[in-house]
Design a protein that fits this description.
- Two copies of one chain form a homodimer.
- With 613 residues, chain A is of the alpha/beta class.
- In chain A, 37% of the residues lie in helices and 16% in strands.
- Chain A has 20 helices and 19 strands.
- In chain A, strands 8-7-9-10-12-11-17 form a seven-stranded mixed sheet, sandwiched between helices. In chain A, strands 1-2-3-5-4 form a five-stranded parallel sheet, sandwiched between helices. The first copy, chain A, has a five-stranded mixed sheet with strand order 14-16-15-18-19, sandwiched between helices.
- In chain A, helix 4 crosses helix 12 and helix 16 crosses helix 20.
- The relative contact order of chain A is 0.09.
- The interface between A and B is large, with 111 and 111 residues.
Amino acid sequence: MNDNDIGILKGIANQLRIHSIEATTAAGSGHPTSCCSAADLVSALFFGHMRYDPKNPHFYNNDRFILSKGHAAPLLYAAWAEAGLFPTSDLLKLRQLGSDLEGHPTPRLPFADVATGSLGQGLGVGVGMALCARLDKLDYRTYVLLGDGECAEGAVWEAASLAGTYKLNNLIAIIDVNRLGQSQATAFGHHVEVYQERFKAFGWRTEEIDGHDLEEIDEVLAAVGLGDQPLVIIARTLKGAGVSFIQDKDGWHGKPLSQEEAVRAIAELQPGARSAAGVPIPAPTALPAPNNQAPASYPPISYKLGDAIATREAFGAALVRVGEADPRVVALDGDTKNSTYSDKFMKKFPERFTECFIAEQNMVGVATGFGTRGKVPFTSTFATFYSRAFDQIRVAGISMANLKLVGSHVGVSIGEDGPSQMGLEDISMMRSVAGSVVLYPADAVATEKMVEFMAANRGIFFLRTSRPKTPVIYNNDETFPLGSAKVVRQSATDRITVIGAGVTLYEALKAADALKAEGINITVIDAYCIKPLGKDVIRAAAQKTNNTVITVEDHYLEGGLGDAVAGELSVDGIRVHKMAVTELPHSGKPDELLAKYGINSDAIIRKVKAVIG
Amino acid sequence: MNDNDIGILKGIANQLRIHSIEATTAAGSGHPTSCCSAADLVSALFFGHMRYDPKNPHFYNNDRFILSKGHAAPLLYAAWAEAGLFPTSDLLKLRQLGSDLEGHPTPRLPFADVATGSLGQGLGVGVGMALCARLDKLDYRTYVLLGDGECAEGAVWEAASLAGTYKLNNLIAIIDVNRLGQSQATAFGHHVEVYQERFKAFGWRTEEIDGHDLEEIDEVLAAVGLGDQPLVIIARTLKGAGVSFIQDKDGWHGKPLSQEEAVRAIAELQPGARSAAGVPIPAPTALPAPNNQAPASYPPISYKLGDAIATREAFGAALVRVGEADPRVVALDGDTKNSTYSDKFMKKFPERFTECFIAEQNMVGVATGFGTRGKVPFTSTFATFYSRAFDQIRVAGISMANLKLVGSHVGVSIGEDGPSQMGLEDISMMRSVAGSVVLYPADAVATEKMVEFMAANRGIFFLRTSRPKTPVIYNNDETFPLGSAKVVRQSATDRITVIGAGVTLYEALKAADALKAEGINITVIDAYCIKPLGKDVIRAAAQKTNNTVITVEDHYLEGGLGDAVAGELSVDGIRVHKMAVTELPHSGKPDELLAKYGINSDAIIRKVKAVIG
């Protein structure tokens, strides 16, 4: 790039600063100083180096940009406005209810693949995109802009490690080292060598630059893609750069300038500022689009009634069957693939499987990244370990991501490994995620059908699988609609309705048999879909049994099946007696634990008798 | 140490291997190979270098040991049995329901300060203990044994960074680099230099050793405490070491030996094995016990009714007031102290405040560590960011930890920052934690009283604080018992009961005033304690209003206040109409958002009228 070009980029950078200040001052809130430090970097990226079609942010071979330091949203918005996607006058609507230019970016905006704002999450998503580029034989690069304080987040290092291990030389991280965090200076200030040594140790190529020297920025960006390592550009910057009275001063994080301050700041920036109108943006390469065509159907299943198959094992088989038909399916696991059975998919489709090692937060981020590129990602680990990734899952909800989270080893029924490995809070956690679907198949047929449905339908799905073997109880042509439930046992003289799922469905059926022998009939429902709950089916059954139901779940008392049923149906006068694990469990044999924690068939029988009186 | 001593340690190591194999074979499950790789390290620590009283595991100046790779539990149990705490014959009860020697260690055992088994969490707890030693002017060292695969967890690097930053030279990490994970080899195999470079970059002194050479182990352990950095001992080991047919072979993770295999293995180990009986264990230093005396009372508060104070600000004041009287109180924050107001405590008691930077998982781990040492740790950050630390919080439940988690910026009422910053799932998350208490004060008085209660009572507490200012409505002598609720508005002609908390309590009171003017009276309840729920108070009120209540919360629909009330009271025929945030929120002014998401006074008025018909 020649001096004239450098001058243009410098001018655009100052224009981006002006936009950021004007917008946050108009909004009365926001993070202008965090925008100012990164403005030169963003200018060089958006108007000199990234190859993209500004009118078509979703184009499949655009270079990708993730603003991991999501509070610098005004800067991102300014860049896309200057690139011509929408009028710059819209920028003044920042943070207004009627504008999609929110406080932190969300995919309501076409240029934000994922929501950011919870720090440390962007790099993992970038790893997913970079891996996907490789899978799809595309040459887009993925740029992730992080803050320095943000690098305290462990999620950053999980992502860094995986990127280094998989030699993702199409991934570029840029660290805006402006030395000032929210409430004080960061731990390392401007000691950029600390970041350099860390990323180097994690397998990255590193470049250190003055983040306000556009020649240096241009030079390093021109050399991306060299070698076989991911690249990190560590940019020494000043928070509030360009405005003398706020530059590099603590106490300005998240503070908009007053009207008067804004006038003074813009007076400083204006002389060197210019719009990006007319500046050519490099186009993306023309490469064939990846095959992300959903199949017309999936191959059939053929299970035999009565065969004993753990739902975790059926998941492994389903993933292969569905993956074979559906080129969009990819799988990820966190060193549990021999327990979750995702190893079956890995053996058949190694290029579509990503071993994420023992790093669940990152696994979810990487999967989210794949999902933004049109893939259908299935992640698997123990259900309880998704609690490690709850923030990533929560934000995936805001990102309206396409994610299929499969959690095995649910409940006390895992047995001797004990509570640290048991999923006892996962239904609760996943119910609270925006837009999620929570599925809990009882047998292999249900599992297979749900995996199919998950692949075929966009959204965040959570599938609970169990460790013990359970008999096949459904025919191969059974369907499992969302928002429904299955009445698996019913007669005209039922005294009460018992609702179970997974292992407790079998306990409920055992109880039903024993009670029947005593002349007490009960309705038994399989609540295979906990969210959206099959409330019409449940209500109808309950209304035939004195408006009373018993729920029984291999999960804690709070937030799971019982709360879901009571939460939705108390308004109809349905009384919900909740059976669940009500104390911290202990190691022991599965059957012992189901008994001790009061969720086995004997406990159900006692409860039925106690309730019907 | 001389050759004889080394020989003794080698013999004990083999005895520990024998115990691990016998126990897991008897149990039919467990991780013997993971125990074998670390046996020499554990032998040297427990019988040569750690200074502790084996009959008194809780002694305040014992060196601490955390088995972060918790699946090697049998090895830990064997060490303490050999140290004389309980008979070695007990070891064969591993994983049985009637024995506290569970699949992974829990503090039911006096020598396990925290539960481990969810990998990557031990080092953060160790950081907390090491910081506490410094605060208490004690010289105990904290040893944390990690696996190599475990080092993929970001939580390890959060802890490593903080330890390096605070130069915790009383913290020693030991990495058992046995190269084999659960489902495959780790990313780096036996390339110990990878771990060395990483820890070095994070500010640690590093030593690389042969993890089966007891001379080398002895040498590095003799030199702990040198310099001003934390020490990591990177030990190259073999999984299954000592047993020729399983040593360094993939496919043996988490597999017990069969009876026949165990016989063969023990035949290999027996000749070199010896018990630790009679081997002297270094005693801890005699230093004065720290002052962990709970105060008799706390100083009084003096707020004026009607004053507008945000509960987050009242928290800041309460922490200082309570901290002044209570020497056990320590505070931690994740670079949000100017927003959470924990900075007030920091300024008064800097030696009792730990800035954890933007690393919430680690903040919770560090706090847990402080709690094990008799401190009362208060953590603060935005409520939603605790989702980043949910696994650590979940495990703290298993650890029966003493933790006070304060989450600010709850709900849509934070306004323009948008959904990534809003706590909308935190009540749900915290309700599901074993043994937790969930508190939601409406005003400054309630906040202060709750902070006092939290400090005075052991357990895991979560306190929700809000961003907007709200008027003081309670007198300074008001009390807020657990498991209760406050009826703040009631008359003999109430048509329905409306239950709110935090900002929605004020919306409910506003609605009550407006409805009263129209001749419709309602009961209003402040559900300041969501878990344990004030169900008796709520039931009693509901029974006077046609068994019908409306709940309204600044939180999602799932798992929060509404589900808590319905979940507990549907059995009494109470109908619960839930008002909550039912869609992904957008940025906007607080009042706009309360209106848009249907939880303000206008919405409550409409709902009341719709329900009473």
